[in-house]
Design brief:
This protein has helices spanning 63-72, 92-107, 114-128, 134-140, 170-174, 177-193, 200-214, 219-230, and strands at 2-14, 23-39, 52-55, 58-59, 76-82, 143-147, 150-154, 159-167, 234-237, 241-247, 255-258, 265-266. By secondary structure, it is an alpha+beta fold. The mean pLDDT is 92.
Length: 267
């Protein structure tokens, strides 16, 4: 059984002591991760056979996916096909985990509810230290803003260009208490500054203000944002990766996708 989950880009986030209280503004993108799930070799998936996870055909350790499979109590073969860079701010680990959970539930007739699978995937991400809430946007699609007044979802249409230079270890960022305290402060201010029903451009502008105040952007990220702005567009840094995303330009950055208003689904 196969399932797809879209990638996601977080422009602003404000971590909290309890992960479920973290806030942020993110949008889903059309590119994502496909998970093909079947029984582990030689078994029916419900015994003690060792499972295996591959990414683009290569066996790998993928902690949040493995944690989700443990929670589901299945021994599975999981083949992940990633359309987005892994570990570079596109929520690839969340997409892989959610797609795996949806596919495993269908493959093994586990009869979990959609909400249970989303929550299970979220807990796996938090435990692995690979994300705080990517699976929620990937479950629904669109643009989600979570602030002190609640969570709002919007369905904007926009083309996104992006360029990625490398990864930033999310677990290191999430374990740095001083950095998290600074990010929480500027993140809450940035979220409060967003207009009602922000456009992708407005989110990107506020996202870049937020990114600069966190101190996370590298020199390459800053230079690329300058290039986009010189071309008349707006750009910021995807959290958390050495990745620039931009709106309002064509052909400035190497990669192109769209905001997706559809969430994860079986295939």
């Amino acid at each position: 059984m196969s399932a797809f989950a879209p990638g996601s880009v977080t422009a602003i986030f404000a971590p909290a002591d309890h992960p479920d209280e973290s806030l942020g503004a993110s949008f889903a993108i059309a590119d994502g991760v496909v998970a093909d799930v079947g029984p582990a070799d030689g078994g029916d998936g419900l015994g003690d056979e060792a499972g295996i996870v591959t990414v683009d055909g290569s066996p790998t350790d993928f902690e949040p996916v493995e944690l989700a499979l443990d929670e589901l109590d299945v021994s599975a073969r999981v083949e992940l096909d990633a359309e987005i860079p892994i570990g570079r701010g596109f929520g690839a680990s969340g997409a892989a985990t959610l797609a795996t959970a949806l596919a495993a539930d269908a493959e093994f007739d586990l009869d979990y509810s959609r909400e249970e699978l989303v929550q299970l995937s979220h807990r796996a991400e938090v435990e692995a230290g690979t994300g705080l809430g990517d699976v929620f946007i990937q479950n629904q699609g669109g643009l989600l803003v979570g602030n002190n007044t609640g969570v709002e979802r919007y369905d904007p249409e926009a083309t996104i260009e992006y360029e990625s230079y490398g990864g930033i270890d999310t677990s290191e960022v999430l374990s740095d208490d001083d950095l998290l305290a600074r990010i929480e402060k500027v993140g809450r201010t940035a979220l409060a500054s967003l207009p009602a029903e922000p456009t992708p451009r407005e989110l990107t502008v506020e996202g870049w203000n937020f990114a600069r105040k966190t101190g996370l952007p590298t020199k390459e990220v800053e230079e690329t944002v300058d290039d986009v702005e010189s071309a008349g567009g707006t750009a910021s840094m995807a959290m958390v990766g050495e990745t620039v995303f931009a709106v309002g330009v064509e052909g400035v950055l190497d990669n192109r996708t769209e905001i997706s208003t559809a969430g994860a689904e079986l295939r």
